Amino acid sequence: MNTLLEKQTPRLMVLPTFLILLVISLVPLVYVLGISFTDSTIAKPFHDFIWFENYKKAVTDEVFGRSILNTFIFAFAVTSIQTFLGFILALAMHTESKLSGIFRTLALMPLFTPPVAIAMIWRLIYDPNAGLINHYLLKFGLHSRPVAFLGSKYLALPSIMFADIWQWTPFCFLLCLAALKSLPKDPYEASMVDGASKWYVFKRLTLPMVAPQIIVVFLFRLLIALKVFDLVYMLTFGGPGNSTQVASFYIYRIGFKQFQTGYAGALSILVLIIVSVIALLLTKARDVFLKRIE
Known about the structure:
This protein has a single domain (41-293), classed as MetI-like fold (Orthogonal Bundle), CATH 1.10.3720.10. It is 74% helix and 0% strand. The chain has 13 helices and no strands. The protein has helices at residues 2-35, 53-59, 62-92, 98-107, 109-112, 115-126, 132-139, 156-181, 186-194, 198-225, 230-235, 247-257, 261-293. The model has no long low-confidence stretch (mean pLDDT 88).
């Protein structure tokens, strides 16, 4: 009896936390799912049960389709660049030195800065009249007139990407650095004895061993990037036109600006399904890749 109780004790201790997380996750999901089948507004929740009409409308909604495309472009682009830069910086700062310690400390600053503050900083940097970038573009004769980075449909999304890369690259750097620090020392000592070159050690030892962790960093950051909202809200508000409108911001506009909460609920469920499918496919692709390099 005591042995059985000892085995079940860890599960019983975790049970309250598990139930709380289940309620916090499940209740909003059930509410959104239920409201997505209605023609609800903020003033009239669960008004007129209309079955799948909201989902049919979403399939033919060109703005929603464009927002999904913008989300994918943004998420995959910034995640790829951030993971690559983070890994390169981690390799450069892998050795213990005073400079690497200072750099690791500085790398935490963008992560500790509130997203709203970061958005305001970059809004000032991109300002066409007094912004830092335009100042130097005009000073060095690189452009004849100020550039409206956030007012151009071609430059607005890349400008938001650049701000996001600045904010989240340190996050990828720290995770990649932790992955490098966790690698075993014995293979490297053996390679030094054998006189292997640095490139050979990186290609045959470091990269294969650290690849699983780097892929996890990429997937983790990608799931965060797919939910981008704050930078879009603060920098462009989805404009100009719909050039920077991502899925989360479009749902916000439908639900809290146009007050169509039923339709916003349907869009939320569709985005959840799309993100879940992408996460599943990428996880499968990761498993296949890891089997090949083993």
